[in-house]
Amino acid sequence: MKEDLQHLQLLGIFHYILGIIVALFSCFPFIHLTMGIIFVILAHQPPSGAEEPPPAIIGWLFIIIASVIILIGWTIAFLIIMAGRNYNRKKHYTYCLVIACVECLFMPLGTALGIFSIVVLIRDTVKQIFEQGGQLPVDSPK
């Protein structure tokens, strides 16, 4: 039983780390967001040379697509961090299991963490720990 508690604590820490990594990787589209803003600004400037600036719609596409990708990435990162918090608090078993399954889509780190999380979560003793809010069962050896 104490081994299960240690595993849950480690899973919580690893979920925090993965959430931070996902949040950082979700910041890469800021490059495209910046390019889109520059395109929109240049489209409204009078042409200074022989070349025409790109149309403003191109800039708006960059802005919208980059913003959506950033928002989705940060949302996933937040959900993973919340799963780590739930592992540490030993609450919301179903939420943790669903996030573990979703993490399997993000290769390679998410897949490894998702599989390890599922392996730990399907144990009967871990289910009991979640049902009792992190308390060790009375009849279990300490």
Q: What's the total helix number?
A: 6
Share of helical residues: over 70%
Largest sheet, in brief, is: none
The topology string of helices and strands comes to: HHHHHH
Average pLDDT confidence is: 88
The gyration radius over C-alpha positions equals 22 Å
Shape estimate: rod-shaped
Proportion of β residues?
under 5%
As residue ranges, the low-confidence spans are none
Helix/strand/pairing category = mainly alpha
User: How far is it from the N-terminal to the C-terminal residue, by CA?
Assistant: 7 Å
Q: Number of folding domains? A: 1
Overview of this structure, please?
With 142 residues, the chain is mainly α. It has one domain (2-45, 53-131). Helix content is 73%, strand content 0%. The protein is built from six helices and no strands. It has helices at 2-25, 30-43, 56-89, 93-103, 109-121, 124-131. The longest helix has 34 residues, at 56-89. The termini are close together. The relative contact order is 0.17.
Kindly list the characteristics that best describe this protein.
142 residues, mainly alpha, 6 helices, 0% strand, rod-shaped
Q: What's the layout of helices and strands?
A:
Layout: H1 2-25, H2 30-43, H3 56-89, H4 93-103, H5 109-121, H6 124-131
Helix pairs in contact: 1-3, 1-5, 2-3, 3-4, 4-5
Quick overview of this protein structure:
The protein contains six helices and no strands.
